[in-house]
Amino acid sequence: MMDFAYWLPIVWAVILVAAITIYVILDGFDLGIGMLFALERDQGRRDVMVNTIAPVWDGNETWMVLGGAVLYGVFPGAYATLLPAFYLPIVLMLLALIFRGVAFEFRIMTRGTAREGLWEAGFMAGSGIAAFSQGAILGGVIQGIAVTDGAFSGGAFDWLTPFSVLCGLAVMCGYALLGATWLVWRTTGVLEASCRKWGAWLAVGLFLCIVAVSLWTPLLHAPYLRRWTAWPNILFVAPVPVLVVVLGLLLAIGLRRGHSGGPFLCALGWFFLCLSGLGITVWPYAVPPSLTLWDVSSPPSSQFFQLVGTAILLPIILTYTIYSYRVFRGKVTEADGYH
Amino acid sequence: MQTAALALVLARFQFAFTVGVHIIFPAFSIGLAAYLAVLEGLWLKTGRQVFLDLYRYWIKAFSIVFSMGVVSGLVMSYEFGTNWSVFSRKAGPITGVLLSYEVMTAFFLEAGFLGVMLFGMSKVGRGLHFAATCCVSVGTLISMTWILASNSWMQTPRGYTIDPATGRFMPDDWLAIIFNPSFPFRLVHMGLAAFLSVAFAVGATGAWHMLKARRAGAIASEPVRVMFSMAMWMAAIVAPLQILAGDAHGLNTLKYQPVKIAAMEGDWETEGRASELLFGIPNMKTERTDYAVKVPLLGSLILTHSLDGKVPGMKDFPRDQRPPSPIIFFSFRIMVALAFLMALVGFWSLWLRRTSALFTSPVFHRVALCMAPAGFTALLCGWITTEVGRQPWTVYGLLRTAESVSPIVLSSMAMTLAAFVVVYVIVFGSGLVILLRLLGRAPEEGEHNPSPAHPADVLATHTHPGIAGPIPDEGA
User: In terms of residue numbers, what domain contains B380?
Assistant: First the structure.
């Protein structure tokens, strides 16, 4: 039983990080497309942008619900500590996601009326605010929160620091890059050309953000620094920054040489590396710098019951998610709209 | 201390407000998804155009309702932690796991096949498309099952032990947790409520178009008549069933939560041969129900199915364990009154059918139109009754609401409450307006002909950026 209590939280931490990664990647390009509305003013092309994600965005957002639910069921201590700590940015994010989510339908349904502009703006601003909030929350988790007796004991604005703001901007930049490279892959013509251009700028911006966050993070807490510099850890973690640079070069080449899906894959690779890097940094804490995975996890009976279901259901979910993406594969053009 | 008490009130109000708005949409989706599956199935079986027309008409409303349900539901999955962190820490090992199962068995299923359902009619073929519709419909039902298991566990907790060190609820027996005593009753009652709500919404839409056609001196189109007829069949069949299910649920509540029943009935003294109050104003301070209008013996008859059965009174329970009777006394009565009204409309429709007057009685059509919100109102009142009736507990008899709340400062709670109200009024108010305009347009015969050359033609508005959508159409 001791072993169970030790291993189950580790297995769950891996599943949770995987779910968060899938969420960030999938909803990342959705939110990015919303932000790119700021750069693309043409209604026809905006419709193409939305049409590339309309059939799948709802499934993408479900991964976020899963993240919340897994945290609630498996790491209730973390759920009960982190959510009050990030109360304001979480509410902000949820409200932003409401505006953005309904804008998919509402902007079409109000087309030609005065209120269409409201939903176009809601789609754009909602996407940007949601992305910023997610980054700020992530930054806030990394910098750590005040905990007394296993419960949050800090102030309402503890999360708001230069570091969390930087993380918020980094995530905005990153999501916009995912959106731009997704559109490079899924669209043609003027829109594709614009996205190649925007993608290049966003890639530069995100690279600078990654460098800044990477240099800043180890300075936040001594264990973070040791994780990355102590021997022999350094042997295992050194490939991460190297791969970031390699993927950056591939991304630049892909955008310039007219590769279709390559840039998107490179951007995904960046997100994967960044999230892995963050995971390496905060391990084994669920609520840095005080509560570990084991401090916050639910009893093994809960974790095990949920694991059985997850082991069966997650592969099924992935299968039909891939199926649904395949149904809507291929380039989307304005002509699709007019036939 | 004073501000903490106020913060608790605001946390409760915020949760009640957001969940109250949310619950409308899943209920709408449950009923409408099932209706769409029936319509598509009938179309495939009979090949009659009218069923496809209706499918395409209602799927537009469905896409709006569903997206509002998704975004308002996302809020709920995080609000347990933001507003009720102590509850989530202690009950998370049980309720969090049930919620995770809901996400994995239902939400992904709905979301995964919704895209195919809305946009994929010509991409996947009829059989697969019907399968996608069924997956979405089944997903909504699975979702309801898990969330009601979780909710019912909070009402009648079973299958747990309490860890003495941390006060956490440790799961012992998952079958006992899921199939707790109030779960089957709540599941049936809620499922029927969702179907009934949608039946009256669809019926009112049909009634509106029949009245409009009549005013224009025309006969309502076939899709309108078929939708109205189907809705009234549902009303006639489901409303009486719902009354029976509600009665059974009431007996179950009497057994496991007698003080809730006492508060619903405004009864203070435990007595046999109890009367039923038709009206009154329960006063929690003086322990009396003022201005009571009573029917002798009916209270015992309803609650025990015998004239001299014993009915509980609130005085049998300590003051700090009584739910606020004035709220649930009224919410319960509104629900029951609406239920009988809906059953009456159902019987009336049967009578009109006998004389072939279902499509020609403007009086009945006006009544059906006015009944549009009846199902949803009854459903909300039912939820207020059962949730307020659970007070002052989150986990019944074990964890008090006052001890479940998060350490959120009053100013944050007040600020976010205001933000929620403003955003919900704008977003869901607009959603309602859009929905009403959409339904204000009559379904056309041959609505958006199916053609493999037109991808995504089910929701034509999405793929006709250059062509006016249904709202400008309607304005023209």
Answer: 2-256+328-475
